[in-house]
Write a structure and sequence with these properties.
Strand content: 15-25%
Distance between the termini: 84 Å
Shape: elongated
Number of helices: 2
Helix content: 25-40%
Largest sheet: 4 strands, antiparallel
Order of helices and strands: HHEEEE
Strand order of the largest sheet: 1-2-3-4
Length: 86
């Protein structure tokens, strides 16, 4: 009877398919964390950060869109530090 050694399993060289599967899993999890769906008159899905995203809408005006302005359109305006009152 052959003994199963855990150290032999842990030190074995990973196969290319296993590396590819692990990388794809990490990429999909990262992409899922940046996905946002919304409903209403213009229901759709966006992928990306608030400053740079791509998306698709399937209601209202259906189609693909992209925006890479570097700013968050939903963010509150920032106050200028030079105009503070004393």
């Amino acid at each position: 009877m052959r003994r199963f050694r855990l150290s032999a399993v842990l030190t074995r060289r990973p196969r290319p398919a296993a590396i590819l599967a692990a990388g794809l899993t990490v990429a999909l999890l990262g992409l899922a964390s940046m996905t946002h769906t919304y409903s209403g008159q213009n229901a759709g899905l966006t992928v990306g950060t608030a400053g740079c995203s791509v998306g698709i809408e399937w209601r209202g005006d259906p189609g693909l869109f992209g925006s890479c302005t570097g700013t968050d359109p939903d963010a509150a305006p920032q106050r200028d530090a030079s105009h503070t009152s004393r």
